[in-house]
Amino acid sequence: MSDGKGMKKEIGLTSLIIIGLASAVATAIFFSPLQMTEVAGPGSLIAWIIAILFYVTISITYIELSQTYAEAGGPSRYSIYSHGAVTNLINAMADLLWYLFIPPIEAFATIEGLDYIFPSLLDSQGFPTLEGAIVGVILMFAYIPFNYYGVKTFSRITSGFGTVKYIIYILPAFLLLLVFFNVKNFTAYGFLPFGVAGIFSSMPYAMFAFGGARVIPDFAEEVKKKTYLIYALIITVIGEGLVYLLFDFTFIANLDWTKLGLTPGNWASLNKVVGNPFIVLASTHHSGLGQIALLLLLIGGIVGPFLTGYVYMGGGARVLFASARSGFLHEKFKALHSKYAIPYWGLILFAIVGAVIAFLFAPVPSIYGLIDDATVAGYIGFATNPVAMMVLRMQGVTKWKIKGGSIISPIAFAASSLIVFWSGWPAVPYSVIILAIITAILGIVGKVTEGLKESTWYIGYIAFLTFMTYIGSDGALSLVPYLTATLITVIVSLVLFYPLGIYQGLRERNYLYHKEASAPEEGLESEEGGR
């Protein structure tokens, strides 16, 4: 149903920033502080600061790559230009797994909020009941209309919706601080009760939160000016970082152990809290301000994740679109709606698969289990970007270079490696096995062999990270102390796999096999009038 004109460039700067912030700040704002504080105590604040620094480096690679390849689902295409089809197939499928898990996670978060009103949606362990699973399926299909009627409608709804969402998210945090503030929670029970290892263990939950910023380059082909991507990424990462720090600080300060039935200072016992942690906190306060905070959190806990869910579904549809452009999926997924110019087949498939995940996975893991799996897949995919950035520089095709990129790139690669490793066992092998199965099936069916030699660094890299989680202190064998295993992961990633990835990059621009999405025959031109 494509009219041959390609995607419509209708997203302005303000809308793009709100889309970025709305997708980045959702489920994690409520659930990450609890999970991080459970394993790090007040040291979770340090984890958030490290996460900001880590994701700044990763987002900078997105900035440079998106200025050269401003295309839909771009992060799932960059490696095809730098390393060829096999690397890109693995990279794109890792990205796809990240996207497939996020909408169900957001649906579960909405269910957590609804459970306060309809307590039959969750069981005593916090898992969705049959009714909860059915609501999750309904939510997955409810995301479709917000994406279907074109990117202009999508951006307008998200801009208004996202602005209101931020207000009803931030205001309750300040209200809770006014109602109850226990300074002892920061000092009396140890600021680092689990040591530095606790900070590292909590990092994946922080990095899951920041991963939402990658939605911005996924919409690059529909942005009015590609330079908007630069400002939107920077503002999103800094903005979400400040909000997450506020919520983590609020969670620790507002923690009333007695009312929650917990032993003061027993951080590990926080895993007994069932439901949305901030709604649970607010429900323990019966003052006027506390009740206002509870009302706002209920609204935010239900509506906020819904917004993020439909934004991620739109981003995921564009990842499918990008994968079809690369030749990994059926031609149908490259089709654009004749009127609304959106990849509608990808949108429909995403809703169906997401509904299946929401229903089948509901009785098994809590929301935290899905977060673990999504984080591993996401950062395995992210790891290709720093390497691709350096290879494309060497090819001489980079149009806009970040100053200090040669320093930022290895830091971003090391950060991705650590987040995968810190996600631990069994999240890493679980995600890697799923990734291997999907990649093998599509690779065999599609006869994807181009760039096989150039992909060996990436395959070895994924195997290495899996091995390290297997032998690490939180793995199956527990042979290597946690901090020692962390150090080994950093050194081997930077000394072996990072330079090997650059060395195995394609020696010349990959004209022969792959066309840029912005080439005239794809119906789009760059701001400079086409390449």
TrEMBL record:
Membrane topology value: Multi-pass membrane protein
Keywords: Membrane, Transmembrane, Transmembrane helix
Chief location: membrane
Pfam families, sorted: AA_permease_2
Top-rank taxon, per record: Archaea
Localization annotation: Membrane
InterPro entries registered for this protein in UniProt: AA/rel_permease1, AA_Transporter_AGT
Name this polypeptide is given: APC family permease
Organism: Metallosphaera prunae
